[in-house]
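Holo prediction — zinc ion.
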Amino acid sequence: MPELPEVEVCRRGIAPELEGEVVRAIVQRAAKLRQPIPGELRELLPGCRIVAVRRRGKYLLIDCRRAGVEGTLIIHLGMSGNLRFVPADLPPEKHDHFDLVLPGQTLRFADPRRFGVVLWQPGAPATVEQHPLLAILGIEPLADEFTGDWLHAALARRHGPVKPVLMDSHMVVGIGNIYAAESLFRAGISPLRAASRISRLRCASLVDAIRATLSDAIAAGGSSIRDYVHSDGGAGCFQIQAGVYDRAGEPCLRCGGAIRQIRQGGRSTYYCPACQR
Ligand SMILES: [Zn+2]
């Protein structure tokens, strides 16, 4: 499943080729993915200039504008979706549900499992935050506002162990299972520690660890941006250098002790009981 770093790399890959372009046509081959695709896109989007390509959580936001029309195309890749540029005359395959036709090339959205979304929010770019899917999202982990003090205050109000709390997208977006485990390892914090009992200082380390873990993953994908949006490969997850994730029983890279695997909130958690307190 594409995580925040994959979506950010996708954004960086498509933005330079979309921004400033004028949409020629929309081709819609599926009536609905996770939600119905608005039929009015076929009338609204042609002639629109693409003003910006942004990201909020795992949603790609494509701001569009022409005389009488202003709004944001919201795309979520779901479990298995991908966006790639193809020649306009390339015949679609079975799971190619939506095309944004530009001069010279087409941005094609494929989604075999149909958990993605293609939606439209009318209005100025900032109004997209009011869309029900986006209004419930927590803070961006790479934004300046995400600080140790902010996290300390947020965790103080929460019950239970820190790892499931970190993965709650209503608080912070984009910290999936892998990134939660790796960030806690980097920060030396046990995934079992009560969220409300982590000091301000350790929250600052955790924020640094989360930013570093996500940034490393984005950098790992960044080197393949061109392949990513121009090949017909899937959205595949990046290989990050895992310290603990999926390494049950293997030696800790820091202390040599065995990595432990437990279940938390229905998900596997990996950690080093010696290095993480
Ligand atoms: Zn260790």
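READOUT: The chain has eight helices and ten strands.
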